[in-house]
Amino acid sequence: MQETTFKWPQSIFPQSKIAKRISEFDWQETTLGTIDSWTSMLKATISMMLEVSFPVVTWIGENRILFYNDAAVPYVQDDLATSEIGVGKPTTKAPGGHWTRFESMVDEVIKSGRSICEAYDFFPKYADASHHYVVCKFSLDPIMDEQGQILGVRCILVENSPVNQNMFQKDQDYLFLSELGGRMDSLKGGSVEAVIRLIGEYFAADRIGLADIIDNSSHVKIVCCHQQQQMTDVRGKYDLNHCHQTLYEELTNGNIFLENHVSRSHKFTQEQRKRFAEMDVSSVLFIPLLITGVLRGVLFIHYRSPRQWEESEIRFLRICVSKFWDVLTSIRSQEETERSERYYRNLVDSLDQAFMVIEFEFDKGNKPVDYKFVHVNAAFELQTGLQDVVGKTIKQIMPEVEPAWLANYGSVALTGQPRRFEEYNTGTARWYDVYAAPLEGCSGQVVVVFKDITEKKFEDDRKMDFLSMASHELKTPLTSLKAYIDICSRKLDECDYKNVSTMLGRADKQLFRMTTIINGFLNLNELEKGRLKFNKKVFDLGIMLEDVKRDAALVFNNYLFSCSLDLSLSIYSDREKLQQVIVNLINNAVKYSTPGTAIAISSCLVEDRVRISVSDQGIGISGSDQNYIFNRFYRVNENLEKDVSGFGIGLYVCKEIVHGLGGEIGLTSFIGEGSIFWVELPVYRSTERS
């Protein structure tokens, strides 16, 4: 016998033969070595096993060396006094060969590191000089050493004795919850009714069902129902206005509604008791199903006979239903999210405009340096020719991407402000009309919708080339024609040919209008090509406006022109271009006003800016038209201007010229009252001239 300093506990088993066996056994013959060489964790494990009063069996090491305490002896040995002791032996050589059936489970615990819990089996037990089988619950748990490695496996036994009946019922409930959890794992596959049926069978229900509250809480729909044979199927949609008021109030407040004996209950009216009797129902229980405190569903259980519920049963039923409802609502929410995603994905993919979601990468200075494609639709591939871009960055696809694209999209990601712009992409050699907006709730992500406008751009260029060519071709003979008319007019003034002189005056007006149109086309062409030049000088604004007013009064002598000018104002601008803007505004006033009405020209100082206004008493412009009046080729409601000529480029040219001069242009107008068009430019200060 070897000596050891290891002290075995004597408080629980002062006469323990198992403790003595462990102390006296020659452990050097095993793979565990002498007791002195055992780790502190192994010693603590064996000590704790001997101290407890319930059966514990332990396997240690590679050979599954068997340990157990005195409480486990009736399950391991035939008789503690006479039978061979199995402590220290491998499982395969231990007495009571039934322990070998645990080998596969012990192996599983050691390999996985996970416990096998709450299992049940029959065990032979030696008692009263004979064997008999008892039902025991057992659990197998891994034992870890100081380094976190698996040292062995511990098995704890609990017998289903009369003393343990309450514990056994709890164990049965636990087993049911485990089975319920396994069934709920497949809820997404559509097995809601199977779970409802499982709960009903466990509580021996004659009918159990699930109902959803729908239509803004006005109706209830029984979506699944399981009942015994001969009981009617109650699936369907019901009006909650016909529902038992007390029942509905209790459920709405989150309370269970229970009636053990319906026919004797004062909670129901005679008519309601009659309806339950017709349904062969004597006992009912309703459990509210809430989402964020709002009643969204009901689980109901019916019994043909009166049933007395224990509080513990109701608590456990509520636990089961709560777990089921939590899983079901989570799955429904996920399915709804997936449906929404599919809907919007299909919607996006059906667009004929290209769509993409991109995610930005910024440098330390918060400058956009690259972006990744998160999602694109089919039109994206058609309009760009790019495929399989999701997950890739633009620089992986186009290493030489233009900085303008990064800047435009990056500003949206940084500022959170949407942008619309037109841009040329050298990588695809196409023009695009683009709208970009931040994706709410996703920092750094931008939603982009764009369409290929290359053909439109080419068409516009061809149109502008044609207009430019036609305008130049027309301008030369018109200039000559006007010169001839001017000469004729002067000669005729010396004679008394009033009718001819009047006709020549009218011809001159038409030439003026045609010249204005042609100049508009030429300016538009210069604007589109970015070649419009400005020749800025300091000049007296009042004198220029007086000249414009005088010329207009001569040309349009059937209108009443007036001026209200601040003659002290000077500006630093392009006189010819600004005069063209004012003339265009006057022409517009004439077009949309009745002869004999007033047209007023005014100028004044508004803070540090000069405001020039042209007002009329014409037909006015609607609010919807005012949003687009300065767009190229835009004309107001055709019914209002059916007798007015023009191509819709005059105001567009005015806007571009004013912006080029560093100013702003706008209007105030009301239908039937007239319009006021205004231009604001910086006032001249001597330090601003360059």
Automatic annotation (TrEMBL):
Reaction(s) the record says it catalyses: ATP + protein L-histidine = ADP + protein N-phospho-L-histidine
Organism ancestry: Bacteria, Pseudomonadati, Bacteroidota, Sphingobacteriia, Sphingobacteriales
Name assigned to this protein: histidine kinase
EC identifiers of the protein: 2.7.13.3
Molecular-function GO terms, alphabetical: ATP binding
UniProt-listed SMART domains: HATPase_c, HisKA
First-tier enzyme category under EC: transferase
CDD domains: HisKA (cd00082)
Gene3D superfamilies according to UniProt: 1.10.287.130, 3.30.450.40, Histidine kinase-like ATPase, C-terminal domain, PAS domain
Domain called Histidine kinase: residue spans: 469-685
Keywords: ATP-binding, Kinase, Membrane, Nucleotide-binding, Phosphoprotein, Transferase, Two-component regulatory system
Domain of life assignment: Bacteria
Listed NCBIfam families: sensory_box
